[in-house]
Write a structure and sequence with these properties.
elongated
């Protein structure tokens, strides 16, 4: 059964994992969030219920 032979895919998996961990992850984590979280409590808008004309 050739799918049990780890030679063709193990090296590719380890190389891609190391590439992601060492190169791409620090670049992605360096981006700033466009909406940083604030310490304020969220404001809940006051809404009125809709009055249906047939009820």
């Amino acid at each position: 059964m050739p799918q049990l032979n780890p030679a063709p895919w193990l090296f590719i998996m380890l190389t891609s994992w190391l590439t992601y961990s060492l190169i791409f992850q620090p670049k992605i984590l360096s981006f700033l969030s466009p909406n940083p979280p604030s310490g304020k409590a969220p404001t809940i808008p006051s809404t009125t219920p809709w009055t249906w004309p047939w009820t």
